[in-house]
C-alpha cells in the first residue's frame, strides 16, 4: 500500500517568486484573543476591556497583534515548513497596516523572496519568506519577512535513514543522541553541565552558529 505523509516543501522544491496561498483561513474570536492575551501576560486594555476600548479611536477591542503574527506564520506551516524546516532564524520586518477585530478571518499567503544553499551546513539552505495576511475583505492586515533554514530532500532523507554525519547535511543531534564524549579531551563538559544536542555554549546560537548581526547572514550561513 502506498502511503503519503503530509509535509511542507524542501529547499529544492521552493521557487523564488512563487506565492503559496494557504487555506483554510482562521476566524479569530473574542475567546481566542482573551485567552492568548492572558496566557502571554498581556493585559492591554485594547484587547480585554470592551467598555474602555469603545472610547478609543477604533471604537472596539483589537485582536492582539502578536496573535495575528503567530496565526499568520501558523497558517503557512502545513504547506511550507511542516517537517522540512531545520530552524526559524529570525524576522527582519513585521508590520500591521490595518487592525483585526473579533470575528474577522485571517487568510495567509507566503512568497519565497530568495534562497541559497548554506555555506557552512551541507544539505541545508537559507530561505527568505514573506508572509502576508489579509482579512475577509482582502485588506492587508499583517506582513512579516523572515529567514528560515530548510533541509534539502536528499540530506533529510539520509538523516532520517540514520546517516546523520555532517557531510550529509544533518543537524547537530539529528540522530536523537549527542555524540559520545572522548575521555581526556580538553574542555570536556563537567558531568553536571547539560549537553543536550542543539544547544551551544554561552554566546553561541542554539544551533551552533554564531549570533548574527543584521547583514552578516552571508558570512555565517
Characterization of this structure:
The structure is a single chain. With 221 residues, the protein is α+β, with helices and mostly antiparallel strands. The chain has a domain at 18-154: Thiol Ester Dehydrase, Chain A. The protein contains 6 helices and 5 strands, in the order βααααββββαα. The chain has a 5-stranded antiparallel sheet. Strand 4 (124-134) and strand 5 (140-151) form a beta hairpin. The longest helix is centred in the N-terminal third of the chain and has 17 residues, at 65-81. The relative contact order is 0.16. Residues 164-221 have low confidence and may be disordered.
Write the layout of secondary structure elements.
Layout: E1 19-27, H1 30-39, H2 45-48, H3 50-53, H4 65-81, E2 85-95, E3 105-117, E4 124-134, E5 140-151, H5 153-160, H6 217-220
Antiparallel strand pairs: 1-3, 2-5, 3-4, 4-5
Brief write-up:
The chain is α+β, with helices and mostly antiparallel strands and 221 residues long. The chain has helices at 30-39, 45-48, 50-53, 65-81, 153-160, 217-220; strands at residues 19-27, 85-95, 105-117, 124-134, 140-151.
Structural class: alpha+beta
Written as H for each helix and E for each strand, in order along the chain, the element string is EHHHHEEEEHH
Main beta-sheet strand count, sense and barrel state? 5 strands, antiparallel
Categorize the overall geometry. Answer: elongated
Beta-strand level of the residues, as a percent range?
Answer: 25-35%
Q: How much helical structure, as a percent, in the residues? A: 10-25%
Give the N-to-C terminal Cα separation. Answer: 40 Å
The helix count comes to: 6
- Strand order, sheet with most strands: 1-3-4-5-2
Named at the architecture level, the CATH assignment of the domain at 18-154 is Roll
The number of E-state strands comes to: 5
CATH superfamily of the domain at 18-154: Hotdog Thioesterase
Amino acid at each position: 500500500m502506498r502511503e503519503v505523509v503530509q509535509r511542507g516543501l524542501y529547499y529544492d522544491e521552493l521557487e523564488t517568486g512563487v506565492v503559496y496561498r494557504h487555506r483554510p483561513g482562521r476566524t479569530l474570536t473574542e475567546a481566542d484573543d482573551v485567552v492568548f492575551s492572558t496566557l502571554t501576560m498581556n493585559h492591554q486594555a485594547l484587547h480585554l476591556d470592551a467598555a474602555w476600548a469603545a472610547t478609543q479611536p477604533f471604537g472596539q477591542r483589537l485582536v492582539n497583534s502578536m496573535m495575528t503574527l503567530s496565526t499568520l506564520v501558523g497558517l503557512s506551516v502545513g504547506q511550507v515548513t511542516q517537517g522540512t524546516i531545520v530552524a526559524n532564524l529570525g524576522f527582519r520586518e513585521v508590520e500591521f497596516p490595518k487592525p483585526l477585530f473579533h470575528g474577522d478571518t485571517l487568510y495567509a499567503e507566503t512568497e519565497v523572496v530568495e534562497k541559497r544553499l548554506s555555506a557552512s551546513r551541507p544539505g541545508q539552505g537559507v530561505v527568505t519568506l514573506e508572509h502576508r495576511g489579509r482579512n475577509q475583505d482582502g485588506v492587508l492586515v499583517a506582513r512579516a519577512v523572515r529567514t528560515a533554514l530548510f533541509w534539502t530532500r536528499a540530506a533529510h532523507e539520509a538523516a532520517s535513514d540514520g546517516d546523520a554525519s555532517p557531510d550529509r547535511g544533518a543537524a547537530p543531534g539529528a540522530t536523537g543522541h549527542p555524540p559520545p564524549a572522548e575521555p581526556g579531551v580538553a574542555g570536556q563538559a563537567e558531568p553536571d553541565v547539560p549537553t543536550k544536542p542543539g544547544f551551544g555554549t554561552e554566546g553561541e546560537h542554539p544551533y551552533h552558529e554564531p549570533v548574527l548581526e543584521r547583514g552578516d547572514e552571508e558570512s555565517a550561513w
